[in-house]
């Protein structure tokens, strides 16, 4: 039997007018405020925070117009109510489109060789999986053998967690002149479980113009429609700041929308600011076109066809010195805000289709809320 406090929480949840609860809306906005928005003296989010989207309301969701207020200023000045909130995206859209219970397994970077054995990727020197060492072809090896594989390289190396390394978290560059037995063993001891070491990729001369110290990548969002068609939602090039080797904007770099012909939008966008300097102002040149862009798009569509459990994927793609696409990683919970900053309301003309699917969520209230989606995903939330 529930005590009074638990019953009160349960009653309030059941009586929510909208599918997304007040708590979820608060958590979504908190993520937006801390991760994306400028300071309040630059952008006063209170102006439209208590105005709500009529578009999302028809599907049973309450979405503050603060999202439209901010994203329309960043992208196209089109203030409309189709900009999605973070809580609707993370709590409802992602588990509706992607099998939530499979996500962690598929996003393990040490499993990419088995998922995409024939796809060009950075060269792996060794892997640590569940605390044990493996060769690049997944054969068990000793610690000493793993050390030797790293020592044999003549290039700079990248060490990264194979699980949960989003936004460059705990990704480290190791210069070739620093690599010796003691250094490699120290790295093994620091990272302990679930990581790999790979050779640093030599990138396209064109992308190197954006910032020569970082591996500059394309973040491409693809969606599989209910009709089984694979479509592009938005494509963005990301680059790091001077001296940084990560491509995320938090290192002083930025990002630009990529058009269908591979050309970049003139504006350089960044988190936590409304400033949008031009390419000329920020980087010193007026235009840039991604080479081999049609090949890149074919590449990501071919990759997505291999993932039947996931309808929405964010791909991180680099270009090598020959301008050939190289798979870096995939993101099965790729940021909605990043996409909307760089391309307008997420899903574009497919938004109606997506929201029809999402609105069919079934909530089962007991001691917690279990949300069940048509694709088999289940998400547990505390009441």
Automatic annotation (TrEMBL):
Alpha-L-glutamate ligase-related protein ATP-grasp domain: residues covered: 196-349
InterPro entries hit by this protein: RimK-rel_E_lig_ATP-grasp
Superkingdom of source: Bacteria
Pfam assignment, any one: ATPgrasp_ST
SUPFAM superfamilies associated with the record: Glutathione synthetase ATP-binding domain-like
This protein's name: Alpha-L-glutamate ligase-related protein ATP-grasp domain-containing protein
Natural source organism: Bacteroides uniformis
Taxonomic path: Bacteria, Pseudomonadati, Bacteroidota, Bacteroidia, Bacteroidales
